[in-house]
Amino acid sequence: MSRVEISKIEYAIETDVLRLVETIISKHGCNRSKLIPILQDIQNELKYLPRKVLEVVSSKLGVPISDIISVASFYHQFRLEPVGEYVFQVCFGTACYLRGASNVYEALKLATSKVSITVEKARCFGCCSLAPVVMVISTRTGEKYIHGRLNTNDARKIALKYSATIRK
Ligand code: FES
């Protein structure tokens, strides 16, 4: 990518975000082997990996954007879309799946469709005796809460409880 193209990308993202990305890259070193820790740090700060930011990382590390998107898509930990104030992770591990995780997931999706809550599927959290399990993560504070032995009614109550705490 030419210097002019890089400048155009850099201009398209806010200066403070660009500074943040540059700080993170210089902390790890401008090296493609550091791609994952760089993406982790960016996501910790921005809560997801915006396409424009990935283009900057691509130009700085000399890694094609398609490779970066592949890495970010492969690892479950990375998000390519913005998230809400809370992320509801519904475990789809075997125990949870067999005890109705799909119904809980659908109930949460419906109950949160108009609020800033992201509902997604997740792998086993290691507390299978509580199946089906939902982990609620506050994207503002990073706090995590486990809710277990849920049915669809419980799921709707949880959605209401956390929706009520979201700032309007
Ligand atoms: S299968 Fe859901 S917590 Fe293990």
Helix-strand layout with pairing:
Layout: H1 3-12, H2 15-28, H3 35-46, H4 51-61, H5 65-74, E1 86-91, H6 94-98, H7 101-111, E2 117-122, E3 134-138, E4 144-147, H8 152-163
Parallel strand pairs: 1-2
Antiparallel strand pairs: 1-3, 3-4
Helix pairs in contact: 1-4, 2-3, 2-4, 7-8
Bound molecules: FE2/S2 (inorganic) cluster.
FE2/S2 (inorganic) cluster binds next to helix 6.
How helix-rich are the residues, as a percent range?
40-55%
Alpha carbon gyration radius: 19 Å
- The strand order across the widest sheet is 2-1-3-4
Tally of separate domains: 2
Helical/strand content category? alpha+beta
Give the amount of beta strand, in percent: 5-15%
Query: Hetero groups bound?
Result: FE2/S2 (inorganic) cluster
Report the major sheet.
Answer: 4 strands, mixed
Measured distance between first and last alpha carbons: 42 Å
Overall 3D geometry?
Answer: elongated
Q: How many helical elements? A: 8
| Topology-level CATH name of the largest domain | Glutaredoxin
**Shape-level CATH architecture of the largest domain:** 3-Layer(aba) Sandwich
Unreliable runs: none
Going by CATH, the homologous superfamily of the largest domain would be Glutaredoxin
- The CATH class of the largest domain, by name, is Alpha Beta
- Mean pLDDT level: 91
Order of H and E elements: HHHHHEHHEEEH
* Count of β-strands: 4
